[in-house]
Design goal:
Largest sheet: 7 strands, mixed
Strand content: 15-25%
Mean pLDDT: 93
Low-confidence stretches: none
Oligomer: single chain
Structural class: alpha/beta
Strand order of the largest sheet: 8-7-6-5-4-3-15
Number of helices: 8
Distance between the termini: 61 Å
Helix content: 10-25%
Radius of gyration: 20 Å
Number of strands: 15
Length: 362
């Protein structure tokens, strides 16, 4: 009997390992050569990327089980009761600076004739098995991927499923000139058929020019991983996008921390910030900001106009689905911060006289 049980356990382990290596959605760990190169990064400590201070990702088993039990409880307001309305976006590249938000963190930035896609998660659900997940709130996208112009660069903030989506990359990769990613994330893209010469990887505070723009890979307080075996194998970041007439900050995912002020001191002021405001909870506040902290982070980086992101597409936390934008809007008004709240697909001209302000989610 012991021999039979041992054989079953070994068989399960073998099947699991094979599945992890064969199923492409999980991506791929960085090569040994890349791992060796990572040792030059001050973020790479004891064989993995880490935040300067410990976060909830180092939490106890009891805390983790408590979170899982709370997710198992039903709540009527974690998803909207009907699909969200969308608008038809402007997908044309021109000299005007404009931003189109597609729900969650996915955004298209058109700046000085260049098209930049930020965290283009266009899939049904942020999961390695999206067919079994609940779909995005809008029921779909306000465009077809084939309608997108040639994308000069995709900027990724990290490798979580709600930001780096296998299906989206497979549909996009043939019309993207360059993938600009934090250290290690390129390994996933290579496994998915992206040519290595189309991928550039960066560490925090790396600054470089791209097609006449100045870009900088900047810090964030978060974590990475697409399976149980690759926690911290790749870096996470925020991004600075600076043109001749516009300066934009994209927060990626992050808890509220001193890096926002550091970014503001070095690269601010910003004409626009795309700031994470959703999927928060007190127990993981060190890796996802509360909406009030979102506004403070905007102030810290010396932002002018703010568009709240990381909400409006998926339920990845315990709060009501519209709570993030409602709280962020109240906090912005209380602090005299200009805020735009476009519908999904609605294109915002950065230097316009007015910005979308309707409470369309109500």
């Amino acid at each position: 009997m012991l021999l039979i049980l041992t054989s079953i356990v070994i068989g399960i382990v073998i099947v699991f390992v094979l599945f992890m290596n064969v199923y492409p959605v999980f991506g791929q760990k960085p090569s040994k050569a890349k791992v060796q190169a990572f040792s030059r990064s001050s973020q790479y400590v004891n064989g993995k990327f880490q935040n300067p201070v410990p976060t909830m990702t180092d939490g106890s088993f009891k805390k983790t089980m408590g979170i899982l039990l709370d997710f198992a409880k039903s709540s009527p307001n974690r998803r909207p009761k009907r699909p969200l309305a969308m608008e038809t976006p402007s997908l044309i590249k021109d000299l005007e600076t404009k931003v189109t938000w597609f729900g969650h963190s996915a955004s298209l930035v058109a700046i000085e004739g260049k098209a930049l896609l930020l965290d283009p998660m266009f899939g049904k659900a942020p999961s390695p098995f999206p067919r079994f997940g609940k779909g995005r709130y809008s029921g779909g996208l306000p465009f077809e991927i084939a309608q997108l112009p040639v994308i000069d660069a995709v900027l990724l903030s990290h490798d979580h499923y709600d930001h780096l989506d296998y299906g989206s990359i497979m549909k996009l990769k043939h019309k993207v000139n360059k993938f600009l990613v934090p250290l290690g994330v390129g390994s996933h893209l290579i496994r998915w058929g992206v040519q290595p010469d189309k991928i550039d990887e960066y560490d925090w505070w790396d600054e470089f020019t791209f097609e006449g723009l100045t870009l900088a890979c900047t810090p964030a307080t978060h974590f990475s991983g697409r399976s149980i075996t690759d926690h911290g194998a790749t870096l996470w970041c925020s991004w600075v996008i600076k043109g001749k007439q516009s300066n934009i900050f994209f927060s990626g995912d992050s808890g509220y921390a001193p890096h926002f002020k550091e970014i503001g001191q070095k690269y601010g002021p910003f004409d626009l910030t795309l700031m994470e405001c959703g999927q928060y909870e007190e127990r993981w506040a060190d890796i996802h900001m509360m909406p009030e902290e979102t506004v403070q982070a905007h102030i810290d980086v010396r932002g002018k106009l703010m568009i709240p992101i990381h909400w409006g597409a998926f339920t990845l936390s315990l709060h009501d689905w519209s709570d993030p934008v409602e709280r962020a809007t109240r906090a912005a008004h209380a602090n005299n911060v200009p805020i735009a709240t476009p519908k999904i697909g609605q294109t915002v001209l950065l230097h316009a006289m007015e910005y979308p302000k309707a409470n369309w989610w109500k």
